[in-house]
Amino acid sequence: MRRNGFITGLLYVLMVxxxxxxxxxxxxxxxxxxxxxAEIAAAEAAAAVTPTPAPTETPxxxxxxxxxxxTVTLAFAGDIVGQAGLTTDAxxxxxxxxxxxxTDELAGVSVSLEGADLAACTLVGTLSxxxxxxxxxxxxxxxxxxxxxxxxLVNAATDHILDDGLDGLxxxxxxxxxTGMGVIGAYNNxxxxxxxxxxxxxxxxxxxxxxxxxxxxxxxxxxxxINLMTTDYMxxxxxxxxxxxxxxxAAVKEAGAxxxxxxxxxxxxxxxxxxxxxxxxxxxxxxxxNGVDIIIGGGVKAPQxxxxxxxAREDGNANCxxxxxxxxxxxxxxxxxxxxxxxxxxxxxxxxxTGEVWVSGVSYYPLFMLDTDDYSxxxxxxxxxxxxxxxxxxEDYEAGASDAVSEETYQAIxxxxxxxxxxxxxxxxxxxxxxxxxxxxxxxx
Length: 445
Known about the structure:
- By secondary structure, this protein is an alpha/beta fold.
- The protein has helices at residues 2-49, 84-90, 103-106, 110-113, 141-149, 165-178, 242-254, 278-289, 390-398, 407-424, and strands at 69-81, 91-94, 97-100, 118-124, 126-128, 137-139, 153-155, 182-184, 196-200, 203-211, 259-265, 294-298, 304-313, 316-325, 328-330, 340-351, 357-371, 385-389, 435-436.
- It has ten helices and 19 strands.
- Strands 1, 4, 7, 8, 15, 16, 17, 18 and 19 form a nine-stranded mixed beta sheet that branches. A six-stranded mixed beta sheet has the order 9-10-11-12-14-13, covered by helices on one side. It has a two-stranded antiparallel ribbon with strand order 2-3.
- Helix 9 (390-398) runs antiparallel to helix 10 (407-424).
- The longest helix has 48 residues, at 2-49.
- It is globular.
- The protein starts with a helix and ends in a 9-residue tail after the last strand.
């Protein structure tokens, strides 16, 4: 009986302790909740006082103004070197009469001229209606072949244009003009001299041309017949006539030229070099800075780089394209790289609304001068020399065309294209799309 009472008392004690503990727990939990509620209330009060900042607006990009442009293309090939071998290969016997036809020899350049608004090349030598074709003298039929290939302008300022004296120069210029082509750099009479500014599309393009020398022929009494780059052309051939060049640039600008092209026939000490020499870069730097936009070099007998730069001038920045050397378009040379050349295609754009004009693109077509004697497996003995459009020749061979080049020639052309990409610049190759030039301009570093 006592034992049951003890147990009952113990249960009462435990219940009291549990009640006290639960009360303490409720008290402290209530206090914590009260503090938390106070913090929340304070935060809400602060939020009511401090407004939420407005989101930052995304800036509206400035639209690049669209341009309505018109573009023309100028095509420039290298040097037609009037060596006797080309004329011998062009000869055709008709009984007692020999006629000459260079058309097939030169036809390979035509693909690279297609679609050009103006195409130009350089003639190294003279043309004659006579019967003696020694040295750098070719038959008059070369003029017909040049125009048939697609050219409309010939640069004649070289060190061989006076090989047959003033009479030879005069006949050459007359024969070229008789086909309807323009001639720059050499003139057949004093009245016909002057600076050429041609209307190509709606763009005024000026053409200047200079040769370092005359092959030792003095023109002291007939200085009007040729454009000379040096004042000491009969001696050291080192002093560049910048005064005359400045006057010519100023004259074509005054005549309204939008773009200025300059042909340069380089010194003997540049021949066979595949990189420009100091005397070349000095002249190029000067011309680019003083108003020339396109420079076409010749006389080197090997390819040299194409270069694009943007220069700062007094009248604004300008893109310049320099073809240090496009090499031999046609020749009989067999030294390294002398059978490789290219046609440079340079685009000129004009903003229809503002009239602004700029150089907007450059590319080149590789060319290969074939001498069949160099290839033991060549199968067509009917000719010795042919100028080939490199990519057309490669395509014909790979397609199994009946008139394709031989295996050995095909391999040589592949090597030649690779060499041209190295020497001229791979990006400019038409197979790689060429290079588009930006406008407005950013000055080159």
